[in-house]
Amino acid sequence: MGVKQENGNLGKIVPVTDQEIDDEIDLKAKKYLRGEGANLEVLKDKKLKGQLAVREELYGKSAKAAAKAEKWLMPSEGGYLEAEGIEKTWRIKQESIAREVDISSSKKQYDIVLPELGPYTLDFTSSGRYMAVAGRKGHLALMDMKNLSLIKELQVRETVRDVVFLHNELFFAAAQKKYPYIYNRDGTELHCLKEHGAVLKLQFLKNHFLLASINKFGQLHYQDVTMGQMVANYRTGLGRSDMMQVNPFNGVVALGHSGGTVTMWKPTSPTPLIKMLSHQGPISALGFHQSGHIMATAGMDKKIKIWDLRKFEPLQTLPGHAKTLDFSQKGLLASGTGSYVQILRDSSSGTHHYERYMTHSMVKGYQIRKLLFRPYEDVLGIGHSMGWSSILIPGSGEPNFDSWVANPFETSKQRREKEIHSLLDKLPPETIMLDPSRIGSVRPMRRREKPNKERDAEVEAAVASVKSVPLKNKTKGRNKASKRVGKKQEGILRAKRPYLEQQMKEEQELSQKKQRVSEAVKLPKSLQRFAKKKMS
Predict the structure, then answer these.
(1) Are 381 and 374 in contact (CB under 8 A)?
(2) CA–CA gap between residue 333 and residue 266 (Å, rounded)
(3) What whole-number distance in Å separates Cα of residue 401 and Cα of residue 407?
(4) Is pLDDT of 529 > 80?
(5) Parallel, antiparallel, or unpaired for β 180-184 and 189-192?
(6) Do the beta carbons of residue 359 and residue 90 sit within 8 Å?
(7) For the whole model, what pTM was predicted?
(8) Which of 362, 361, 381, 363 is nearest to 371 (CA)?
(9) In angstroms, rounded to a whole number, what is the distance separating the alpha carbons of residues 281 and 259?
(10) Among the residues of 311-469, which ranges form H helices?
(11) Where are the beta strands (DSSP E) in 95-148?
(12) Which helix (H) or strand (E) holds 117?
């Protein structure tokens, strides 16, 4: 609706016309287009011209559909801190932000002090509504973040190293002194997973319903929580590790080791898919971007590196140390060490060149253990030695939620329906791979598998000529049916032999040619150590 004002008097409210809506959608569609369209007039091949015209039309339709979805289904827009003049966003304090936001947002900024039970770690559900916290001294608590109420808390009276939600807020797993345990929402112990041993870190793969753990002996376990079956149990062979993260794009588990290497695992392979030397010292923190193509690592060499996982090359190296790293839904990177929190932001969208965006200093003496962004909220949860805290980070959360993916306001009936659907859509462990886009594609035929019609026709003709030759009648005992069949088979093999020898020779030449080409191609630095070295 619009308001027209003439001669200083308030006029009637004019409705927005369809033409104005179409113009707005066309304007929004420009950012979803794939650059300028191809110039098809210069093409002489009519078939190619027609195919490209259809492709360009599809690109235009998809961009318009995305623009319509943005206008009608995503009404909220995210915003960041904006500085004026020579002012810097990282100088703005939490007190200044709290004075400017509404009452409901200011309530999300708090500090819970429990010095005798820390340090604390925490985890959020995929919708961001519920939070589980675990203190090192055995304190477990489940909270509803919508109304900031405590659902359940219990004291297990032994060391708790980590906590993670399963597929929804009804179940969570805690890594305790000897074994990990699974509890329900009421705090009742449901299972003791003795096969995992003394677990240091837990992660849950929600699309595959797999609980992954790494224990103090460097053993990686995958357990199916629907059937209770142990899917995989592998020794990493790289010693003790308490750095573990799951790539949200493909479900691959990444481990950080004391030798400065990062290994990536899947449950169907006893050896790591990728083993990359990331730092010159032990890995202290890991984090994955929501897209799954960007990884951040921190090491004891006082460097934070941003990696492109499509090429396994570092995009940026930042000075500094971090004990914990986490990416938000909108791509902000939080790093924490000691009592200091730093938020980094991509300076120009898409380049992944990170610069300082916000900073926050805790009370002197607080030692940060874990940072975790709350989904669909501009909130960062901090677990530290004296309890846990929450601060406001404008622009960190996705402003529009999809109720089919994660609904912060779902009812118990919707939760049951979602649980059933997710069980029906559960993916098998075999679907975890570095490039999940290969699933459903057809493997191209190898060169030796491609049929050669001319050669096949020559082989068939040679076999037919051998079969048509009549066999001589021999003396009694040498003219048996079995001997006649054997002689025919020998003749067929004799006729096929030259063609098979020629095929083997061609395959050998092809393999030698491929080897020469691969030696000529220069590998990227991260993969050169895997290349076969020439014997001197």
Answers:
(1) yes
(2) 26
(3) 7
(4) no
(5) antiparallel
(6) yes
(7) 0.73
(8) 381
(9) 6
(10) 412-424, 453-468
(11) 110-113, 120-124, 130-135, 139-144
(12) none
